[in-house]
């Protein structure tokens, strides 16, 4: 028996194989091959315009909403082709939730924000319970439990972002995609959201785009470094340089470009 046979292998949630992503005739990202594992935080890093958000939005088919956007190659979710005709993108987005750069609570009460998706999905369970569980998981319950009827917009930026996380959690997703979730937050709120990400990975798989390299080292298990290069047409196309354990990417990456980027020499 080989000595590694007792180490449990992580479950693959998404598998990206030779995927290129286009906006019309413009190829934004080329030839990405990458796996995303269950209950891990995977960080996507790299200079501006290398296609991190573009790839992130493919995982819940958000790019479908952009006219002309398409994927070549294959992206599977639980071994099933995510872009197959029979796959319902609305159901994909329920299972693969998303938190955006700028907190975007609805102009509704805190309570109504959390149950929004549940109501749309005609949730049959106890809404009060759902609100409490989701807000607790988002580390916001203690701060808002006495003012659930107040507007979500009355909260601070950091609280609003945790409310958006609670709203995402309340639809019971399996994966949470985060597109620079802390870039509009102050350092203390950022730390809170980072602690929350640590908690959340026990129950969810997380993919996070971040410009903040310290954040990637603090929150992620694996890091994918993307870069961009000029094409003959004069465009820039993004590509994956390497993906590995975060400690490897930041301390002993295989590629010089990765070392240069993580040590702040460009980008
Ligand atoms: N909706 C869109 N329509 C057309 N082109 C787009 C669209 N969104 C992004 N792009 C282009 O795709 C390329 C990759 O953009 P993307 O936002 O994915 O990069 P990024 O690495 O996330 O950048 P940043 O770090 O600045 O957010 C860029 O050239 C961008 O202009």
UniProtKB/TrEMBL annotation:
<dbReference type="InterPro" id="IPR017871">
    <property type="entry name" value="ABC_transporter-like_CS"/>
</dbReference>
<feature type="domain" description="ABC transporter">
    <location>
        <begin position="14"/>
        <end position="253"/>
    </location>
</feature>
<dbReference type="GO" id="GO:0005315">
    <property type="term" value="F:phosphate transmembrane transporter activity"/>
</dbReference>
<dbReference type="GO" id="GO:0016020">
    <property type="term" value="C:membrane"/>
</dbReference>
<protein>
    <submittedName>
        <fullName>Phosphate ABC transporter ATP-binding protein</fullName>
    </submittedName>
</protein>
<keyword id="KW-0547">Nucleotide-binding</keyword>
<dbReference type="Pfam" id="PF00005">
    <property type="entry name" value="ABC_tran"/>
</dbReference>
<dbReference type="InterPro" id="IPR003593">
    <property type="entry name" value="AAA+_ATPase"/>
</dbReference>
<dbReference type="GO" id="GO:0005524">
    <property type="term" value="F:ATP binding"/>
</dbReference>
<keyword id="KW-0067">ATP-binding</keyword>
<dbReference type="GO" id="GO:0035435">
    <property type="term" value="P:phosphate ion transmembrane transport"/>
</dbReference>
<dbReference type="GO" id="GO:0016887">
    <property type="term" value="F:ATP hydrolysis activity"/>
</dbReference>
<dbReference type="InterPro" id="IPR005670">
    <property type="entry name" value="PstB-like"/>
</dbReference>
<dbReference type="InterPro" id="IPR027417">
    <property type="entry name" value="P-loop_NTPase"/>
</dbReference>
<keyword id="KW-0813">Transport</keyword>
<dbReference type="InterPro" id="IPR003439">
    <property type="entry name" value="ABC_transporter-like_ATP-bd"/>
</dbReference>
């Amino acid at each position: 028996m080989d000595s590694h046979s007792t180490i449990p292998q992580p479950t693959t949630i998404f598998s990206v194989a030779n995927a290129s992503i286009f906006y019309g005739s413009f190829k934004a990202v080329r030839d990405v091959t990458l796996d995303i594992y269950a209950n891990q935080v995977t960080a996507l890093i790299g200079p501006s315009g290398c296609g991190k958000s573009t790839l992130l939005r493919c995982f819940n088919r958000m790019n479908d909403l952009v006219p002309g956007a398409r994927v070549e190659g294959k992206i599977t979710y639980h071994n099933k082709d995510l872009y197959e005709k029979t796959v319902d993108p609305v159901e994909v987005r329920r299972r693969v939730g998303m938190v955006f750069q700028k907190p975007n609570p609805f102009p509704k009460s805190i309570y109504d924000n959390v149950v929004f998706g549940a109501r749309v999905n005609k949730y049959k369970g106890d809404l009060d319970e759902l609100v409490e569980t989701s807000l607790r998981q988002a580390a916001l319950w203690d701060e808002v439990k006495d003012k659930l009827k107040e507007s979500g917009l009355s909260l601070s930026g950091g609280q609003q972002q945790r409310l958006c996380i609670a709203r995402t959690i309340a639809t019971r997703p399996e994966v949470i995609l985060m597109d620079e979730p802390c870039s509009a937050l102050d350092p203390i709120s950022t730390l809170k959201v980072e602690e929350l990400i640590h908690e959340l990975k026990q129950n969810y798989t997380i993919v996070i785009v971040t410009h903040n390299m310290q954040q990637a080292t603090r929150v992620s298990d694996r890091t994918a470094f993307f870069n961009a290069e000029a094409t003959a047409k004069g465009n820039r196309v993004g590509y994956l340089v390497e993906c590995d354990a975060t400690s490897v990417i930041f301390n002993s990456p295989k590629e010089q470009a990765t070392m240069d980027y993580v040590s702040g020499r460009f980008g």
